[in-house]
Amino acid sequence: MIAISSGKGGVGKSTVTANLAVMLARQGLRVGLVDADLYGPSIPGMLGVPSGQPPAMTSTKKVIPTEAHGVKVISMGMLTADDKPAVMRGPMVTKYLQMFVTQVDWGELDVLFLDLPPGTGDIQLTLAQAFPLAGAVVVSTPQDVSLKIARRGLRMMEQVKVPILGIIENMSGFTCPSCGEVTHIFHQGGGRTIAESMGVPFLGAIPLDPAIVDSGDSGEPLVNAAPDSPAAQAYASIADALSVDMDRAGGLQIPFAWDLTTGEGKPAPASQGSADRPLALDYDATGLTIRWPNDHIQTIDARDLRLSCRCASCRDEISGKNLLEPENVPMDVVPTKIWSVGNYALGIAFSDGHGSGIYTFPALREIESVEAEDV
């Protein structure tokens, strides 16, 4: 699962997503595309998918995605007419996003693109917490304002431990069809500069081309309509770079939901992984045991784990003051369920009825262990 994101609107992110998806499908990969911009869906129009025609359902009540140009697609634009707004509060947005990923009959896929709306709000956080994103691609124009906002979006993905696969500079320059002179309307080289300054890959620059607009409006992506154009060649180069960097970061196999009362859903251990993701989890009378990379083993007492909760009801979000009184936590409290929260945390429910705590991996490592040893 790869998120295509940008902090700023109007940078051509959906156009980039549509063309990359079609290019990877042309290369033989099985590609799905979720239009996660529920308020302003544009993917159906760019891929020639009719709007306002709800998709069919399978006998198991799963949505059958529409296929266009070799790509399986789901979008709010397929459920509503062109001029009908999607008026929804946050909980409904979350519900639709989860439905688009988990209740769609995708079949076997090599990659599922998530075309995100601009910003760093509910949609971005929901996807980062609910699903194991293999990485994110950040799209920006060379304009300084756009790059500054793109940096914020990139930092947001880093905070929730979504690997940054790279930065794409869109609208990087216009080549005059008559004289061949290149005019850099939105400045030059900003995408590469910000990628180098933040230590992430620069995937490539896509030039301005009127044919991109025409192909998007006609529902025929540029990589199909004009495969030999400079812009299409840029898309092909970026697709090649992505296709060799789609492996999920190593570590604990996610997603999972482990019911400690029955033992069901315990995550399979991993042999290797990134330094900040656990390799294995176990639980017994001594507490929660976490095996980290470099053979470090940490065991956290169940009550200490409960007292370390940092949710809004246990700790003041502004001051950081601990709101949870130790005398209100039973001495025999134990975790009852542990589940993955995106790539960066564990959710834990306890026998005292508390279940809103999210424990980031760095926060877990900071909890004083009952027993810690280097093997």
Automatic annotation (TrEMBL):
Chain residues that bind ATP: G7, K8, G9, G10, V11, G12, K13, S14
Keywords attached to this entry: ATP-binding, Hydrolase, Iron, Iron-sulfur, Metal-binding, Nucleotide-binding
Gene3D superfamilies in the record: 3.30.2020.30, P-loop containing nucleotide triphosphate hydrolases
Coiled-coil parts of chain: none
InterPro entries: GBBH-like_N, GBBH-like_N_sf, Mrp/NBP35_ATP-bd, NUBPL-like, P-loop_NTPase, YlxH/NBP35
Residue stretches making up the Gamma-butyrobetaine hydroxylase-like N-terminal domain: 282-365
Gene Ontology annotations of biological process type: iron-sulfur cluster assembly
SUPFAM superfamilies linked: P-loop containing nucleoside triphosphate hydrolases
Keyword rRNA-binding: no
Superkingdom to which the source organism belongs: Bacteria
GO molecular function: 4 iron, 4 sulfur cluster binding; ATP binding; ATP hydrolysis activity; ATP-dependent FeS chaperone activity; metal ion binding
PANTHER family, per database record: IRON-SULFUR PROTEIN NUBPL
UniProt-listed HAMAP family: Mrp_NBP35
Family: Belongs to the Mrp/NBP35 ATP-binding proteins family.
Quaternary organization: Homodimer.
Biological function: Binds and transfers iron-sulfur (Fe-S) clusters to target apoproteins. Can hydrolyze ATP.
Protein known as: Iron-sulfur cluster carrier protein
Species the sequence originates in: Pontibaca salina
Lineage, uppermost ranks: Bacteria, Pseudomonadati, Pseudomonadota, Alphaproteobacteria, Rhodobacterales
